[in-house]
């Protein structure tokens, strides 16, 4: 006996129905890390946006993740929160499994590379920064791209206004294009460590200026300062327009 | 007749031929696709913190595109004794989330073995944010924007948002959808600084939310004037939930509409 033809088979579409779910969004904001001789800071504004809306004026994004390390992941807020969550839980297990051994900043840095590269084909859409002190007690800042490429630097800006702040930092922290007076542009200004007061002044200038020129930056500035004595948090208001 | 119970109620082979199993096992030519678009949708949810509590409201409409399809959709869900979850966006996903939340409530309160640890708003929000973010990771999102209102463990007012991408944030005034454009500025006018919610009285909050709902009803074509309003207050060491349904947007004045021309109709 033969089967009576049904038309069900034709309900298999051969052409995909067009639809697009975009799993990412841009929540704005900007972050900045600077390392000093015996301290490091990580700063971020507290605004969160979607499109032209200011969703919140105070949503902190720089966190103390333990063992004198501070971390931030700026860009797509959900991925940023997820990355920091993952790091925190891995940190907890590291402590459990290794008799409470201190996690050094370079180990934390390498681990975060693996967290990021582990999602190479569905990346965390964030610029990540961590700051702390290295084994010699010198300030350290590590910066990442979304898929885990990283390096240790004296300073780095990330997020929406990175392109506004980074050149300023090149000039003011690494003395790029600065020369000894009277040398006719032939002798570079020698590098030196900046004091915490100088760094905080730079950070505040960087953020007030970024607030002027970038619509996604503003409301408040939260700075986490890492020294051998622990982590201190300071807040400065920014323009709310 | 074939007396095998397996064949009861099935089309007889004599009449219809053998069942073609290729139909049931048909492989699609294209990969399975999860992602949808919202079908029946609910519009804005509004919420505001005040001195000793939180106010949250949402209307009762379910739209099918521009069609007013349902006017009896309840979008404020009570979870536990002191939390309200307001949901906008796809209504079928809302109903799924509602089921998840009732499950969570049962697990936490009926099978409570941790000595009366209460299910409070921050926990509900954390749970929902994980659900939303994990569904985004699967590229199969729950098409909603959610506001969780209630109290933290120290009984200070709690208000936090999560959406289909898993993005979360808190603020003294929150609104989803069109409300983010029209209502948030009105609510923030009452309390410009986040910490100042303590200067707002319950009455001021109620009025601000009611006014915002009226503005939304004037300008959001997908809104209705029938709404549910929940006000949670903490007073005398006790939480009170004032949950009112079937409220109507009051003090409407359409006089501004009389002189309107344009909007695609006849010009001047």
TrEMBL record, chain A:
**GO CC annotation terms, alphabetical:** cytoplasm; nucleus; proteasome core complex, beta-subunit complex
Keyword flag Cytoplasm: yes
Q: Does this entry carry the keyword Coiled coil?
A: no
Residue ranges crossing the lipid bilayer per the database entry: none
Q: Which PROSITE patterns match?
A: PROTEASOME_BETA_1, PROTEASOME_BETA_2
Q: Which keywords has UniProt assigned to this entry? A: Cytoplasm, Nucleus, Proteasome
Task: List the subcellular locations.
Answer: Cytoplasm; Nucleus
UniProt record, GO biological process: proteasomal ubiquitin-independent protein catabolic process; proteasome-mediated ubiquitin-dependent protein catabolic process
Q: Which Pfam families match?
A: Proteasome
Name the principal localization, coarsely classed: cytoplasm
- Gene3D superfamilies, A to Z: Glutamine Phosphoribosylpyrophosphate, subunit 1, domain 1
Function, please? Component of the proteasome, a multicatalytic proteinase complex which is characterized by its ability to cleave peptides with Arg, Phe, Tyr, Leu, and Glu adjacent to the leaving group at neutral or slightly basic pH. The proteasome has an ATP-dependent proteolytic activity.
Q: How does it assemble?
A: Component of the proteasome complex.
Membership in a protein family: Belongs to the peptidase T1B family.
Specify the protein name. Answer: Proteasome subunit beta
Lineage of the organism: Eukaryota, Fungi, Dikarya, Ascomycota, Saccharomycotina
From TrEMBL, chain B:
Q: Does the keyword tRNA-binding apply?
A: no
What the entry lists under InterPro entries is as follows: Ntn_hydrolases_N (IPR029055), Proteasome_beta4 (IPR016295), Proteasome_bsu_CS (IPR016050), Proteasome_sua/b (IPR001353), Proteasome_suB-type (IPR023333)
Subcellular location per UniProt equals: Cytoplasm; Nucleus
| One Gene Ontology term from the biological process aspect of the record | proteasomal ubiquitin-independent protein catabolic process
Query: What are the alphabetically sorted keywords of the record?
Result: Cytoplasm, Nucleus, Proteasome
Similarity-based family: Belongs to the peptidase T1B family.
Function text? Non-catalytic component of the proteasome.
Per its record, how is this protein called by name? Proteasome subunit beta
Give the originating organism.
Australozyma saopauloensis
The record lists the lineage as: Eukaryota, Fungi, Dikarya, Ascomycota, Saccharomycotina
């Amino acid at each position: 006996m033969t089967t009576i033809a049904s038309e069900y088979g034709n309900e298999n579409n051969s052409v995909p129905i067009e639809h697009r779910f975009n799993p990412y969004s841009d929540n704005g904001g900007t972050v900045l890390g600077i390392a000093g001789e015996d301290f490091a800071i990580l700063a971020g504004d507290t605004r969160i946006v979607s499109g032209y809306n200011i969703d919140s004026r105070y949503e902190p994004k720089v966190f103390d993740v333990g063992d004198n390390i501070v971390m931030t992941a700026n860009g797509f807020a959900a991925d940023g929160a997820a990355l920091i969550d993952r790091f925190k839980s891995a940190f907890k297990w590291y402590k459990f499994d290794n008799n409470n051994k201190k996690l050094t900043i370079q180990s934390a840095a390498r681990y975060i590379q693996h967290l990021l590269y582990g999602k190479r084909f569905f990346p965390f859409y964030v610029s990540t920064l961590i700051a702390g002190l290295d084994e010699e007690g010198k300030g350290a800042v590590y910066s990442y791209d979304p898929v885990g490429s990283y390096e240790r630097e004296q300073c780095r800006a990330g997020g929406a206004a990175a392109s506004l702040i980074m050149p300023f930092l090149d000039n003011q922290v690494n003395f790029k294009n600065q020369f000894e007076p009277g040398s006719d542009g032939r002798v570079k200004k020698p590098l030196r460590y900046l004091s915490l007061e100088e760094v905080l002044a730079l950070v505040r200038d960087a953020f007030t200026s970024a607030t002027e020129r970038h619509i996604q930056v503003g409301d408040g500035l939260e700075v986490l300062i890492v020294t051998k004595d622990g982590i201190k948090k300071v807040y400065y208001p920014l323009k709310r327009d | 007749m074939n007396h095998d119970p397996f064949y009861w109620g099935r089309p007889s082979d004599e009449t219809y031929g053998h069942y073609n199993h290729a139909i049931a096992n048909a492989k699609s030519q294209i990969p399975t696709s999860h992602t949808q678009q919202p079908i029946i949708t609910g519009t804005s949810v509004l919420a505001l913190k005040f001195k000793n509590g939180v106010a949250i409201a949402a209307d009762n409409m379910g739209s099918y595109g521009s069609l007013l399809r349902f006017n009896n959709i309840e979008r404020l869900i009570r979870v536990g004794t002191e939390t309200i979850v307001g949901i906008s966006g796809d209504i079928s996903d809302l109903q799924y989330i509602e089921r998840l939340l009732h499950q969570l409530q049962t697990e936490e309160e009926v099978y409570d073995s941790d000595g009366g640890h209460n299910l409070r708003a921050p926990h509900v929000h954390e749970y929902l944010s994980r659900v939303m973010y994990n569904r985004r990771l699967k590229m199969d999102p729950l098409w909603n924007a959610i506001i969780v209102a209630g109290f933290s463990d120290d009984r200070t007012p709690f208000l936090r948002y999560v959406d289909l991408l898993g993005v979360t944030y808190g603020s003294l005034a929150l609104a989803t959808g069109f409300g983010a454009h029209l209502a948030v500025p009105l609510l923030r006018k009452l309390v410009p600084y986040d910490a100042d919610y303590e200067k707002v009285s319950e009455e001021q909050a109620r009025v601000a939310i009611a006014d915002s709902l009226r503005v939304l009803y004037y300008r959001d074509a997908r809104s209705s004037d029938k709404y549910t309003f929940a006000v949670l207050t903490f007073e005398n060491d006790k939480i009170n939930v004032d949950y009112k349904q079937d409220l109507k947007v009051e003090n409407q004045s359409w006089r501004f509409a009389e002189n309107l021309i344009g909007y695609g109709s006849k010009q001047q």
